[in-house]
Amino acid sequence: MEKKWFVALLMVVVMMCVCWTGAVAEDERDYQYALLDDGTVEITGYNGKAEKLTIPNMLNGKKVTSIDNRAFYLCNSLISIIIPDSVEKISVNPFAYCRTLKSIFVSSEHPYFFAIDGVLFRKADSCLISYPKGREYTTYNIPQGITAIESSAFYDCKFLTRVTIPDSVTSIGDCAFSLCDSLTSITIPDSVEQIGTNPFTVCSALKSISVSPEHPYFATIDGVLFRKADKALISYPAGISSSTYTIPQGITAIGDSAFYYCDSLTSVSIPDSVTSIGDNAFYFCESLTSVTIPDSVTSIGDRAFSYCDSLTSVSIPDSVTAIGDRAFYYCDSLTSVSIPDSVTSIGDNAFYFCESLTSVTIPDSVTSIGDRAFSYCDSLTSVSIPDSVTAIGDEAFYSCSSLTSVNIPDSVTSIGDRAFSYCDSLTSVSIPDSVTAIGNRAFYYCDSLTSVSIPNSVTSIGDYAFGDCSNLTLTVPRNSYALEYAKTNNIPYTYPDANDWLNN
Length: 504
Known about the structure:
Leucine-rich repeat, LRR (right-handed beta-alpha superhelix), 13-stranded mixed sheet, 6-stranded mixed sheet, 7% helix, disordered N terminus
């Protein structure tokens, strides 16, 4: 009897140990984490399939103190999650992409966070940091006393049609309500002093943003939101059905992401009071066919017109000094662009995949052509690079398959990696004496290229710079680096003075 009892007890103990160690092992295998400077860990990823998850307070014997912003990216099995008391820091909404998540819980004794009805808040600043996107409620009243709405707090909460913001809130973070595509209107109380980069991006049903006439910091005209301090347009509701819009005279700036994904707009009139167009200002306005940029504008931000794939032409005024990175990225209907003499730099990817662009004139003022600036401009037949340019960036003209000629001036000192790769209509190139370096695969697979003259100044030619140029003969000086390169890579070559012997 005693033996049976002992065996039974031993079985229970063994089962408890197996279950416990198994749970820990399973949990630890499901997590990715990084060791922090203080010896604690930050959760950076989760691969498990749990529906109801309790985050452990220890991983590999280390205290869990932090959760990275992409830790639970696309964890669509999660319905509820419990955050342990050990967690001190949670990056910008790590649960933003958890489509089925309905509740976030913390203990009532948690030193840093609290939850109300499954919504997560930070104690230090009374900030709403994450509203679970799987909650099927159509309305939500933010509790009185909450002072801030964190960036991406309501990201992709598709069920919400109305959110009431109390007059205790003083700040709304970047993209706070992005992709809330059932949200039809929103009122911003007078207490709000700061609004981040367009918190209402891709709210496709949003038709109006309201503030009181007495609001000290913001104003609305016809449902469009403006900031008083710098007279900036900061948010045009994507749900407005009108195809045209005239920005009021007196507005001085178009803010970052102001017209982001406003795909009903076909034209926008910008007044001559505007001096800057912000980053992502017209990003993915895919119906926009025309925009007139006035002479008052001095800067066009990064990605300002990215994915405006109905835009056919643009005239950049001579007040603009820089074209930002990806400014016209994937504007695949753009046939012509006029770049004025005032522009000194063309940013990385500025005209990337503008596959209808047939010609471009780069003015003498430009000193640098960014990486991939004209990559995949399949219709571009010729380009004239002015004497002011000193460097041609990596992949600057990559896969410009119709490009037949290019003039490289004697100001250029370097040709970047893959700068003209896959320009398979290019027949000849003359490289000036100023060039010292030709990058890796610079002319790779230019299989129509028959002749390239390389001067004595070139002291560096990258790997496969002329790889798969099957019809190419290099013209190289005697006793030059280019000559040794041609010999080493078995490329046919000739000398510029090959016929001198006839005169001797």
